[in-house]
């Protein structure tokens, strides 16, 4: 998936040039996430730190996560694919966990989902929503559903403040 993602960001977007292959505005939709962040729970408990950087001449974002206890580290690559008009995220961490999310901008929020199967073969949905907040923070809400999206359980709810 990471190889595919890197190949996708090399595809020229309509209206772009060879010197600026990712100049279209769609490639900037997730730029609100770029930065050095301290991440806390709703009650203020430190959850970890996250560093989001623009890479590959603005064609992708790279995430570098470290939990507060430094036991979990993770990396994601995020890119807009002009072929399907959607954002894609490939995530891997030290638990080990892996996600391949797809989605896009919805009412100013980035929403990405994945449908997969658990070890027993049951359908599982993952949905992560990144919401810029009026006070300059950002909320990342990760939810899971075992009933096709009928009900959702919170897996992670973090509030990002710039460091």
Layout of helices and strands:
Elements: H1 2-8, E1 35-40, E2 46-55, E3 60-67, E4 73-81, E5 86-93, E6 97-106, E7 109-117, E8 123-132, E9 138-145, E10 153-162
Antiparallel strand pairs: 1-2, 1-10, 2-3, 3-4, 4-5, 5-6, 6-7, 7-8, 8-9, 9-10
Question: How much is the average pLDDT?
Answer: 90
- Overall helicity: under 10%
CATH homology superfamily = Calycin beta-barrel core domain
Question: What is the CATH architecture descriptor?
Answer: Beta Barrel
Q: Which class do the helix and strand fractions yield? A: mainly beta
What is the first-to-last residue Cα distance? Answer: 31 Å
Topology order in helix (H) and strand (E) letters: HEEEEEEEEEE
Tell how many strands the DSSP assignment holds. 10
Described by strand count, sense and barrel closure, the largest sheet is: 10 strands, antiparallel, barrel
The general outline is: globular
**Mind telling me the CATH class?**
Mainly Beta
Low-confidence stretches: 1-16
Tell me what you see in this structure.
This protein is mostly beta strands and 163 residues long. The protein has one domain: Beta Barrel (Lipocalin), CATH 2.40.128.20. It contains one helix and ten strands; from the N terminus they run H-E-E-E-E-E-E-E-E-E-E. It has a ten-stranded antiparallel barrel with strand order 1-2-3-4-5-6-7-8-9-10. A hairpin with a 2-residue loop joins strand 6 and strand 7. The N terminus is likely disordered.
Overview features:
1 helix, globular, mainly beta, Lipocalin, disordered N terminus, 163 residues, ten-stranded antiparallel β-barrel
